[in-house]
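Dear support,

We are seeing what looks like truncated structure output for some complexes. This example has two components. We would appreciate it if you could run it in full and send us the complete token output so we can diff it against ours.
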Amino acid sequence: MRHWWWKIAAIALLFTASVAGLYIPLSPALVHVSPDRFGAGLVKVQVTGYNTRFHSDVAVRLENGGDTFCPAQVEVLDATHLELTLVVPAGLREAMTDLVVGDLRYPGAFYTKGGGEGFPAMDCGDAIPVEEEQHFTFPNRSILYESIRNLHFHVPMWFTMVALMSLSVWHSIKGLGSNSLEHDRAAVGAVDVGLWFCALGLLTGALWARATWGTFWTNDVKLNGAAVTALIYLAYLVLRASVTDPAKRARLSAIYNIFAFALLVLFLFVVPRINAVDSLHPGNGGNSGFSDLDLDNRLRIVFYPAVAGWVLLGLWMADLRIRMARLSEQLDR
Amino acid sequence: MRPREILTLLQLEVALDLRQRAAWGGLLLYVVSAVYVAFLAVRSVQGAALWNALFWIILLFAAFNALSRSFQREEGGRQLYLYTLAHPRSVVLARTLYNAFTMVVLALLSLLFHSLFMGTRALEGAAWGPFLLAVVLGAIGLATVLTLVAAIAARAGNGIGLMAILGFPLVLPLLLAVMRASKLSLDGVAWSVVGNYVLGLVFLNVITITLAWTLFPYLWRD
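Here is the complete output from our reference environment:
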């Protein structure tokens, strides 16, 4: 029991974090309006909500440059669809008009060629919440939408990879000092597993990028850093494969591993901070980070267990890998 | 740290290199032909971006060519002989210094040929001080990283092929920083911007030399 409590912890953490990460609903939001541009005059607009519960006494207003106007008629089609009949006043001040339904705001929902003088403000009634019951929800944000769940999968992959590579370099340093092949086995086992997590990180990242940025791969400092890290560690395996003498292989690859880890730190932690302008990632280059979205810590409650669970799983896999290598070596002998 | 030993080893490097003048000729010919091929491929280079990119790519391959043989001399007995005479740290420091010198000379010569064929239009608005500093630091950086890689590859007994596989990912951070620094200084951007990259280059060189200094004794032990 005392040897595998942490493996049970890993399974429990992974299970809860993955189930929670996939099942917790998004908070209600307005996601789509059609048409999204209009001029002055009579317009019919369809509003689509996500996880909303529109009801007949919902209060709707449109805000343009500090002025407010109300729809002439609001028809509730179902819980997630509204049809607004608008009499758009002439003299909208700004190009972008915000839509407010109950307590939900859709900033810049509509586009108009603005530049008018403004119009008399109207009072559209009190903002009755559209979603009254407060569930435990994740933030719902335009562009991200449901893909926000990937935070609990994509980011832990990199945490795990860095943890495994750190373990590997620690064994390499110990191995150089002691000349023991046991440390060499541990170093390569950790890199083997770490590379799989790197691949999974790249895969989840590519899918996320396709969903949010519109492309699988782009010229982003973090993407370049991850790709080069993968190349460096693949080269580590090539170096090992090309030396046959075990003691020599242990020494050479340990030296290369230490050098590689220095570059990993540089590439994944230093360069993205210096050269943040080239990044599309949240929290870099002026993009808002998840900490700005996660005001009530609900992402964090799932995210930290997910990180812990994946890191423990990675260590467990490396442990198995190392024991397997040791056994097969004993069998060979 | 044994300055006298390092100095003697440097003299040895120079003497050995003077004995193989053909190698230097080969390197120069390599650079000239690479520049000329690039010239034939693009004909006229208008922007600083392409000029800069071609310059560094050619220099990168020249560096691999020049430095991959830097530990090929020590095979079998000679390595053992050198090992009994000198401390491995002196050996790696002397060789890094000599390779850095080689690369700076090679970089400046490539710059000369590159401007000759590719035209000097890209250089017209350049901030010369930062640009030359970036070229020199980039050359030294290539030398320091590739010296360590060449040592590992030579010890693995699979020189040139392994050198390329191990070396390319490891020189990439340096290459990205130096290309950015030299592009910015070609555009005449102020020192306050270029300075960050130059500092980054110095930092990278210091890390690499420190790592080579600490790790080389393990590499040479048999």
